[in-house]
Amino acid sequence: MSGAGRSFSAGGDVKTMGQAGPVQVYEHIGKLNELILSMKATEKPIIAAVHGFAAGAGFNLALACDLIVAAEDGKFALSFSQVGLISDGGGSYLLPRLIGPHLAKQFFYTAEPIPAERLYQLGVINYLVPLEKLQEETTKLALKLAHGPGKAFGKQKKLIDQSFTATLEDILEQERLVQTLMVQTADHQEGIAAFKEKRKPLFTGK
Questions:
Q1: In the structure, what pLDDT confidence band is assigned to residue 82 with cuts at 50, 70 and 90?
Q2: Residue 55: partners with Cβ closer than 8 Å, 6 or more residues away
Q3: 59: how many CB neighbours lie within 10 A of its CB?
Q4: For residue 97, how many other CB atoms are within 10 A of its CB?
Q5: Could you give the CA distance from residue 22 to residue 26 in angstroms, rounded to a whole number?
Q6: Could you give the 3-state DSSP secondary structure of residue 53?
Q7: What is the pTM of this model?
Q8: Terminus of the chain with fewer CB atoms < 10 Å: N or C?
Q9: Second CATH level (architecture) for the domain 150-197
Q10: Domain limits, CATH 1.10.12.10, in the chain
């Protein structure tokens, strides 16, 4: 996922705010919620490539991705409070789980621009790269994942996301059940064969 133009996403258009009624706002955010939920439900890794500003719901869309690659000059902001709004797009759920409630509240209350470097240090951003290499590095990462064991990636994504609301006992049992299925996959057999033959595995996602 990436943005066109000078920024990943500048957030909502303040010039048009106030023109939509409550019903329109409710429906608009409902569509945004469907997008976020579909991103989390898909059993494929989603990468955000962020340049320029990622503000408001744009910030939260990046958080909903599985990995974030950001340009070194990138800036993020939860700018909702500047226009008297709350965070939408899942920010109230996603960000506190990454950095804790105190910092999440600080970033919301102050709406201060957050340099990509700081979020990288906090573990929100996975890779920090020069702007001119953003597309190259993101593509390289995407290709690496595309040639990996897709089924295993998908199951692992779901287990990690579920771990925030499940008990340790639940996750242990899910790991046992899923692993029982994974040992029957073609990718597992290919991984074993590649190891024995001292070559790179050729996964097919099956």
A1: confident
A2: 7, 9, 10, 11, 76, 77, 78, 79
A3: 29
A4: 12
A5: 6
A6: strand
A7: 0.86
A8: C
A9: Orthogonal Bundle (1.10)
A10: 150-197
**pLDDT value of residue 22:** 86
Across the chain, the runs of DSSP E, i.e. the strands, are 47-50, 53-55, 67-71, 75-77, 114-115, 127-129
- Tokens describing residue 155: 């199951």
**Strand 127-129 to strand 47-50: parallel, antiparallel, or no bridges (unpaired)?**
unpaired
Which residue is it, tokens 């993020």?
A: 76
Structure tokens at 196: 């024995």
What percent of the chain has a predicted confidence (pLDDT) above 90?
Answer: 80
pLDDT in tens, 158-204: 999 999 999 999 999 999 999 999 999 999 999 999 999 999 999 99
Reading the block at residue 59, the tokens are 């910030």
